[in-house]
Specification:
single chain, 71 residues, mainly alpha, 80% helix, flat
Length: 71
């Protein structure tokens, strides 16, 4: 089985389960997990990057948060 076969299987899976995947992404559980992961990632970046980018990091974190979960 080659890479193309795996990619096609992945596409078929996504097409067949689009509604279930969308429901899972917009669930309460996804909201909690994504909040924890995004908070941890943002704090890490803020520690290693210059303070001048903190506001940009927060903006990126907030935009990603809007796309995942239900809040």
């Amino acid at each position: 089985m080659g890479i193309d076969d795996l990619v096609n299987q992945g596409k078929e899976f996504l097409d067949q389960n689009k509604d279930k995947i969308n429901d899972a992404i917009k669930s309460e559980k996804a909201e909690g997990v994504s909040d924890q992961a995004l908070d941890a990632a943002a704090e890490f970046v803020k520690k290693v990057a210059p303070d001048s980018v903190d506001q940009h990091v927060d903006g990126v974190r907030d935009n990603i948060d809007k796309a995942v979960g239900n809040e």
